[in-house]
Amino acid sequence: MSPNLINQVQNGGAVVGDTIKVRMQNGLERIFILVSQQDAAPEKGMISNISPIGKALSGCQAGEKRQYSAGNNTFEMEVLEIVKPAAA
Predict the structure, then answer these.
(1) pLDDT on residue 44
(2) Which CATH number fits domain 3-83: 3.40.50.720, 2.160.10.10, 3.10.50.30, 2.170.150.70?
(3) Rounded Cα–Cα distance for residues 59 and 36 (Å)
(4) How, if at all, do strands 19-24 and 29-35 pair?
(5) What is the pTM of this model?
(6) What is the residue extent of each domain of the chain?
(7) Span 18-32, mean pLDDT?
């Protein structure tokens, strides 16, 4: 496990498998599940950790504001809640 990933997990930051509720710049609330690239299904809210939004949310914590770029535009979202998957 990389030192960066260990730090994110120890600090409660969002990692693959987490469900993240955000408020988008336009005020709408969205729920994303952070997944690996091969599991991505954006139409179901399952976003890749290497997508622009996924990169912005990786390591985030509730209460933070994060930015991501799409084309020539930069957008901001506020992290409202992070739900970790139940332990098996």
Answers:
(1) 95
(2) 3.10.50.30
(3) 14
(4) antiparallel
(5) 0.84
(6) 3-83
(7) 97
